[in-house]
Amino acid sequence: MTNSDALLSPTWLVEPKDLNFVDDKIWPKNLARSGSGEVLIAGVPVSQLATMYGTPLMVIDQSDFEARSLEVKAAFETSASGKTSAKIYYAGKSLLTTEIVRWVDKAGLNLDVSSGGELAIALAGGIDPARIGLHGNNKSSSEISRAVTAGVGAIVIDSEIEIERIASVAGAQGKKQGVRIRVNSGVHAHTHEYLATAREDQKFGIAISDVPAFVEKIRSLSSLNFLGLHSHIGSQIFSVDGFIESVTRLLPLHKKLLEKGPVPELNLGGGFGINYTVADDAPSIAVFAEKITEAVFDKCQELGIEVPVLCFEPGRVISGPAGVTVYNVGTIKDVLVTVENGTGSRKYVSIDGGMSDNARPSLYGANYSAMLASRSSAARPAISRVVGKHCESGDVVVRDCYLPEDIGPSDLLAVAATGAYCHSLASNYNYLPRPAIVGVLNGQSKLIMRAETEADMFARDPGYQIEQTR
Known about the structure:
By secondary structure, the protein is an alpha/beta fold. It has 2 domains: 3-61 and 321-458, Beta Barrel (Lyase, Ornithine Decarboxylase, Chain A, domain 1), CATH 2.40.37.10; 82-318, Alanine racemase (TIM Barrel, Alpha-Beta Barrel), CATH 3.20.20.10. It has helices at 3-8, 46-53, 62-80, 98-106, 116-124, 141-150, 160-172, 211-219, 241-258, 285-303, 316-319, 360-364, 454-458, 462-469; strands at 31-33, 39-41, 44-45, 57-61, 86-91, 110-113, 132-134, 154-157, 177-184, 206-207, 224-230, 265-267, 309-312, 323-339, 342-351, 370-372, 381-387, 396-404, 412-416, 436-441, 444-449.
């Protein structure tokens, strides 16, 4: 490590002994380097993918995605075995296309959606509507109507007004709609402020004290079927403690509700964390499953109640590690940076995408990992920052990493763990088209979301359309 690197490198970032090493802690299971040093994803060279589909390009290792789906399902089903059963809902908000829906369906997972648009994609993907759950703090009447008409298995109630809305639509169709109540338990994960979604002063959920009256109202309506409580404590969670505390708070309420009727399920949400850098140490999903279900069993035994069916909603832990974004390198600058203890040099590597295809670093200060993908390099590691091409100083994709000193224009750069919340949060900032998504499997690639074009972006602008006809 040079003096410059020591000055500018964060304490968690360790200079790699080999810049060409592929760490399976971060990268997809089927990513490797060829004999020439080029990165292959499921046997497909990144240069071939870039030529066929352009860059930026999101690549999803299908086998990895499906394996993680099955791993999550098996972990919770095994932990619940003998005392109850487990339902796994893939959180579609992390990454959703019709092809992804088919992978989820094939793995035997249910599907969680959060809007009418996500519901439309889910239905188009062919999954049984009875295996879909609909979330949202402000579901419109049309979204509710679409869900009930389609036969969605569960709708999560987030406010009192939704009770009447759902009951009215279901009653008009002569249906009995399954519903859950999202409870604001006051438990939140120790993550970024914007990711904490179970605190008292925020938009999601219903206070514990209000739940009994709401459930009584639900049970009084013949068109609704109360399934149970729902809780979601946050995202990118590494500690099981928050889930256990949520169990401790929810099960006494669950017991109270049992006094007047059945409460077949308990949904504890998702938010299980993944590794974005070598410094991260996310527990395996098996650890989460074992400790959470054990806490539920123990608390139910203490309360003298039957263990409910346990529901979970993992998203990131399935889609995140399976995704890689490939960029083309453009301009490069070595910038002198003055810090408290001296002056160092940081390499700014500009790519052909940015915050429009990965908003998480700008929104949440999220850290990512990057590597030179089109070739190997024997050059020394240089402390680097990967930045986008947007007119925004905060347009940073990888804030701190080591890249080869000889990285140059037209090299391909890969960023790890971009399968979750990158495409979902993508925008057209500065009128950049959103990139394509490609699935790779056994040496073959398949387009699952084509890249946007300028024509796609401008199609909604009537002035542009008029100008083009002149």
